[in-house]
UniProtKB/TrEMBL annotation:
<dbReference type="Pfam" id="PF01008">
    <property type="entry name" value="IF-2B"/>
</dbReference>
<feature type="active site" description="Proton donor">
    <location>
        <position position="243"/>
    </location>
</feature>
<feature type="site" description="Transition state stabilizer">
    <location>
        <position position="163"/>
    </location>
</feature>
<comment type="function">
    <text>Catalyzes the interconversion of methylthioribose-1-phosphate (MTR-1-P) into methylthioribulose-1-phosphate (MTRu-1-P). Also catalyzes the interconversion of 5-deoxyribose 1-phosphate and 5-deoxyribulose 1-phosphate. Part of a bifunctional DHAP-shunt salvage pathway for SAM by-products.</text>
</comment>
<dbReference type="InterPro" id="IPR000649">
    <property type="entry name" value="IF-2B-related"/>
</dbReference>
<keyword id="KW-0486">Methionine biosynthesis</keyword>
<feature type="binding site">
    <location>
        <position position="202"/>
    </location>
    <ligand>
        <name>substrate</name>
    </ligand>
</feature>
<keyword id="KW-0413">Isomerase</keyword>
<dbReference type="InterPro" id="IPR005251">
    <property type="entry name" value="IF-M1Pi"/>
</dbReference>
<keyword id="KW-0028">Amino-acid biosynthesis</keyword>
<feature type="binding site">
    <location>
        <position position="90"/>
    </location>
    <ligand>
        <name>substrate</name>
    </ligand>
</feature>
<dbReference type="InterPro" id="IPR011559">
    <property type="entry name" value="Initiation_fac_2B_a/b/d"/>
</dbReference>
<dbReference type="InterPro" id="IPR027363">
    <property type="entry name" value="M1Pi_N"/>
</dbReference>
<dbReference type="InterPro" id="IPR042529">
    <property type="entry name" value="IF_2B-like_C"/>
</dbReference>
<comment type="pathway">
    <text>Amino-acid biosynthesis; L-methionine biosynthesis via salvage pathway; L-methionine from S-methyl-5-thio-alpha-D-ribose 1-phosphate: step 1/6.</text>
</comment>
<dbReference type="GO" id="GO:0046523">
    <property type="term" value="F:S-methyl-5-thioribose-1-phosphate isomerase activity"/>
</dbReference>
<dbReference type="GO" id="GO:0019509">
    <property type="term" value="P:L-methionine salvage from methylthioadenosine"/>
</dbReference>
């Protein structure tokens, strides 16, 4: 996607071939800055500190982290050390494990002197594949938006989204935003209700920044406004992304997603989740078994922003001495999900629905 007319991905190999560069998402929307990652430790920090975030982008960053590790030391021991350190950065997004497992399986059988180039090729493939998957997700989601637009006789389709599942969370296009971008580019009138998504405000900071750059009409709302808007017929559909979908269709996504799904169900608003297949965890059949990351309470008690004089600052918003809890994700039960939008099509959020699109994951003998 483009920033001020220039095409960017949120992660790429530096032109000199010696490092990886990223968009520092902690500085958005007030400053657009890029950072250079020169070591596996840099990549691990970028993931853990949320300089990069979003399940697909976390996986891509981990893949580049393996390349950086192999550049330093391509031994068996360092491959295992890098795998372990990168795996420990964030527990909820399954794309991290997928990328590291696939990368290790590719590199481990090779001689050390062949691993650097192979790791680079693997990271490039992960990134290019993610961009292709997300574009395909958009094509399938576009059909849903087209159908709603047809029923509304060309009136604006109002879409609510939560957190950021845009191109900043992936390698390009985004998951939840890909259908929106493609509908907008086709000329379908769309408007997006952008949940602020406390406590890190990924909706207000990132989704709104993306949509603004692409010219998509949108309005930032507080997290608790979604149900009110649905009650008054101002939401035609909800689309979110996800950090992990279990084999039975349960969805782990940014905290607050479950409440949006409940409100959507109560008001008859279709609730869709957009995801590439590496986000499906075929080893779990119960979303309540997903480890939910508990992040620092400072994300709740402090908030960054721009002061009237242009200065960037972080301010405390809670009483001194008040503790804060910060579960980063929640789980939306499959029964509340209208459909899962994948690169292969839209399925019901059920084991049968998922397997209809991904039959290669059927257990032997079924």
């Amino acid at each position: 996607m483009k920033v001020n007319g220039t095409h960017y991905r949120p992660i790429w190999q530096a032109k000199d071939g010696e490092a990886v560069e990223i968009i520092d998402q902690t500085k958005l929307p007030h400053a657009f800055e890029t950072l250079r990652l020169t070591s596996m430790q840099d990549a691990a920090h970028a993931i853990k500190a949320m300089l990069v975030r979003g399940a697909p982008l976390i996986g891509a960053t981990a893949a580049w982290g393996l390349w950086l590790a192999m550049r330093e030391d391509a031994s068996d021991g360092n491959l295992e050390s890098a795998y372990t350190m990168l795996m420990a950065t964030r527990p909820t997004a399954v794309n991290l494990r997928w990328a590291l497992d696939a990368g290790r399986a590719k590199l481990a059988p090779l001689a050390p002197d062949a691993r650097v180039e192979a790791a680079k090729t693997f990271a490039e493939q992960v990134c290019d594949e993610d961009a292709e998957l997300n574009h395909a997700i958009g094509r399938h989601g576009l059909e849903i938006i087209r159908a709603i637009a047809a029923k509304k006789s060309g009136e604006t389709v109002n879409i609510l989204t939560h957190c950021n599942a845009g191109w900043l969370a992936t390698v390009d296009w985004g998951t939840a935003t890909s259908p929106i971008y493609q509908a907008h580019d086709e000329g379908i009138p769309v408007h997006v209700w952008v949940d602020e998504t406390r406590p890190r405000n990924q909706g207000a900071f990132l989704t709104a920044w993306e949509l603004n750059n692409h010219g998509v009409p949108h309005t930032v709302i507080v997290d608790n406004a979604g149900g009110h808007l649905m009650q008054h017929g101002k939401v035609d559909m909800v689309i979110t992304g996800t950090d992990r979908v279990t084999a039975n269709g349960d969805v782990a996504n940014k905290i607050g997603t479950y409440l949006k799904a409940l409100a959507a169900s109560d008001n008859g608003v279709p609730f869709y989740v957009a995801l590439p297949s590496p986000t499906i965890d075929w080893t779990l059949d119960d979303g309540m078994r997903i480890e939910i990351e508990e992040r620092s309470g400072e994300e709740v008690t402090r908030i960054p922003g721009r002061l009237d004089d242009g200065t960037l600052a972080s301010v405390t918003i809670t009483p001194k001495g008040s503790p804060a809890g910060n579960p980063a994700f929640d789980v939306t039960p499959a029964r509340l999900v209208t459909g899962l939008i994948t690169e292969r099509g839209v399925s019901a959020a059920t084991p049968a629905g998922l397997l209809s699109l991904f039959p290669e994951h059927r257990a032997a003998g079924e």
